[in-house]
Amino acid sequence: MGKFFYLCDKLRAMDTWFGVLLLFILPIFFALGWFAARMDIGAVLKQAKSVPEHLYQSLDALIDRKSNIAARSLSEIVEQMIDDKNNDITAHALGLSLGKLYRQRGENDKAITLHQKLLNSPDLDGHRRHQLQFELGQDFQQAGLVDRAEQQFEALANTEMAKAADEILLNIYQQDRDWKKAISLASKLAHDETTYQFEIAQFYCELAQAALFRSDYNTAREHIQAALNANRKCTRANMILGDLESKENHFQAAIDAYTAIEQQNHDYLGMVALRLYDAYAAMDKAGEGLEVLIGYLKTFANLDFINIIYDKALALYGETRAAEITTDLVRNAPNLLGVYQLLSIKISDLPKQWKTDADMVRTVVGRYVQKSMMYRCRHCHFKSQVFFWHCPACNHWETFTPNKIEV
Ligand SMILES: [Zn+2]
């Protein structure tokens, strides 16, 4: 029993000690907590104040189209974040935007430095690393460092960024005129919605054209066939085949190749009109060749080789017959080019008092024809006096009108 009271007394004593202890320690804990809380809140407030302020500044500047101010404000935040080695997800996201802004402003060196710096972050996970490599590739590409761009994009194969990287790589290969790599990549990228059949056929045509240029006829033939396999409507493949057959003095085969374009897309017949006539002429069938061209022009009014018909008819049958043939064709389907040709023909028949004025009209119409008749890209509306298979403005293939049109 005595032992029990002894324990109770001890506990009471401990309780007193504990109470005293609490009395001293608790305020210290409170004070520490208060300081800790103050410090955290201070840091948070500092960050909350500084980051949004610069962000708002840059957003504001972007809205006002002051990209130099926007880039400067954004770079202050990103640099601070990189130096602090914290908030790296935000730094990464802002870094991507800032890099794009730099590229937009043509400051490719700044974009490269920034993305390389972000890539050195030790905590970078796979996805963010790939995003940065993709951006860096674009920086290099825009800076004209194509080899280094290629390396970045090729390194993204088998990652979630592979498709986007491959699409840019396809453009780079085309710029480099590396048609074999372009064919292989376009075949890999092809799917149900985008088959790349026009592009692949054109890449083969580029190879065929180059082979023909160096008189490697067998290789040219293989590439032409591959182009037609990719796109059986590829008129360019038949044009190159016709040229190849002509070079090898197989004129009937050349005629077959050129005339096959009628079934593929008759709008392109104008591009081979002269070559087709020459193949007939080489077989001593110039008259037959001219009849074929006249037939085309009667059937397809938008073809633009009335001048070829006049020139060849003039050489074959003389001025009177050439004028008759041309006049009939123009009357059949009048257009600007035809009218100009008609004026040129009729001018010699006019009485002397009309001749000077008619000549003036012809000159004015001629100037207008020169200015307003052009090839035009159906995709981006780029206009040119020269025909392109590959639009230099939008990089699309086979988008140029095959005949000059009024623009
Ligand atoms: Zn275009």
**Which kinds of small molecule does this entry bind, naming each only once?**
zinc ion
Strand order of the largest sheet: 2-1-3
Low-confidence stretches: none
Number of helices: 19
Shape: elongated
Per DSSP E runs of 2 or more residues, the count of β-strands stands at 3
Short description:
By secondary structure, this protein is mainly α. It has helices spanning 2-63, 67-84, 88-104, 108-119, 126-142, 146-154, 162-175, 179-189, 197-213, 217-230, 235-247, 251-259, 261-265, 273-282, 286-299, 306-317, 319-332, 336-346, 352-372; strands spanning 373-376, 383-384, 405-406. The chain contains 19 helices and 3 strands.
Task: Describe this entry's structure for a reader.
The protein is mainly α. The protein contains 19 helices and three strands. A three-stranded antiparallel beta sheet has the order 2-1-3. Helix 1 packs antiparallel against helix 2 (67-84), helix 10 (217-230) packs antiparallel against helix 11 and helix 18 (336-346) runs antiparallel to helix 19. The longest helix is centred in the N-terminal third of the chain and has 62 residues, at 2-63.
Task: List its traits.
19 helices, mainly alpha, binds zinc ion, 407 residues, three-stranded antiparallel beta sheet
